[in-house]
Amino acid sequence: MDYSAILHEIRERLAPVIGQGRVASYIPELATVSPQHFGMAVVCIDGTVHSIGDADVPFSIQSISKLFTLVMALQCEGDALWQRIGREPSGNPFNSLVQLEHEHGKPRNPFINAGALVLSDILCTRYAVPETAVVEFLRKLAGHENIHYDRRVAKSERDTAHRNAAMAYFMKSFGNLKNPVGQVLDAYCRHCAIEMSCIDLARAVTFLANHGVLPRSGERLLTASAAKRLNALMLTCGTYDAAGDFAFRVGLPAKSGVGGGILALVPGECGVCVWSPGLEPSGNSLAGSLALETFTTLTGRSIF
Ligand code: DON
């Protein structure tokens, strides 16, 4: 497959929509990012890299971090994790509180904010400095040391994290957070503020395209069964209340973030990441979703 030619074709087709959508502004520091960025990368299991545009520019990964905190939390807890977090799409916005009351403080899935706060809580129990553990895990997956979290973005989100705080206190009242709420929110805001490029992220997800084994070293990070389940969760819950439409249009497991990144994978073949900061109303990158839709149309590589 000539992925380089395909990426060029995608950028050409997408040119009219790059810059459309709204850059996330509820985290003030994210509102300063230009909506004109567009980057895309494909990293194959054999290590081959194809990229276009701003694919090597680091951006705020935001909720894409939840994919990696889920892997880490699974490594800590195994299947016991599912006693505290569900596995169903929520059909609601990523920051919604409504289902928590009826469902006794158990979040629908690990990729909505409530679920990700429980993941951060698990990491707070396991690690003295959880955000450092997440950064180190991502350095290992991306294969280089130059990965950090942006302190200004983390502070900007922490200063305005009133809704996440409400969710966290609510879950704590049901006993579903073990650590102090402030500590969990600090860890959460910091791992959301990690910066990585499309190339870094596409490489970091290749182990999930490779049945849980890190392609470069052969190290197994998850069982094949756990990797399959994680891919299924990405497909059903990774793009929030747009997950059904995303599966319909794109047909790949994917995880998005309000920084404008969407990280997807083709099982058995490659990681694919796109970044374009303008968002559609559900919080997914507008041009990014279209780029991935075009990717599966041109390559015929969807899971269906
Ligand atoms: O909790 C928040 O609001 C952000 N740090 C992460 C949200 C996010 O990326 C949701 N994505 N679509």
TrEMBL record:
Pfam families in the cross-refs: Glutaminase
Residues engaged in binding substrate: S63, N113, E157, N164, Y188, Y240, V258
Subunit field text: Homotetramer.
Family, per entry: Belongs to the glutaminase family.
NCBIfam families for the chain: Gln_ase, PRK00971.1-1, PRK00971.1-2
PANTHER family: GLUTAMINASE (PTHR12544:SF29)
The name this protein goes by in its record: Glutaminase
Biological source species: Pseudaquabacterium terrae
Highest classification ranks of the organism: Bacteria, Pseudomonadati, Pseudomonadota, Betaproteobacteria, Burkholderiales
